[in-house]
Amino acid sequence: MLHQYLPILVFAALGILVGGAFATLNLLLGPKRLKDPTTSAGIRQSDPYECGLPSEISKTFRFGVSFYLIAMLFILFDIEVVFLYPVGAILNSADSVFVLAEVILFVALLFVALVYVWRKGALDWR
Question: Which of 18, 90, 101, 102 has its CA 20 to 30 A from that of 11?
């Protein structure tokens, strides 16, 4: 009966162990005291990290074109990689080398597209 729940217990124990290890490392290696809160460095240190965006966004804040371009490229490559999952599920049952050749060709085309986008400078953040 207990062995049915063993994977859940192991997963929970690993989560607690890794979380505790990172919290302990933060206590040991992290900054000990805040800088002067009246200086700009002290103000930045007390702000939470917000992915590079200002913590308080005004109504007139506009995202740059590069933000949308990278978002679209991420979605495009993410969706293409999702197509590999069903092929991976049937790869063991398929007795044909043709499936493996298709997967290799698909990944090669993805790599060529990534290199093209990279060389065009679409991944450069400005």
Answer: 90
CA distances to 4, 66, 87, 99, 116 from 106, rounded to whole Å, are 39, 27, 11, 10, 15
Burial class (CB in 10 A: 0-12, 13-18, 19+), 46: exposed
**Which residue, among 68, 67, 106, 109, has the nearest Cα to 85 in the 3D structure?**
106
For 41, phi then psi, to 5°, come to -65, -40
What is the identity of the amino acid at 60? T
pLDDT tens, position by position, 25-34: 988 988 777 6
CA distance linking residue 61 with residue 52, whole number of Å: 14
- The whole-angstrom separation of Cα 86 and Cα 97 is 16
Give the tokens for residue 5.
């729940």
Supply the Cα-derived Rg of the chain in whole angstroms. 24
Tens of pLDDT, residue by residue over 84-113, are 888 888 887 887 888 889 889 999 999 999
List the one residue out of 123, 5, 21 whose CA is nearest residue 72: 123
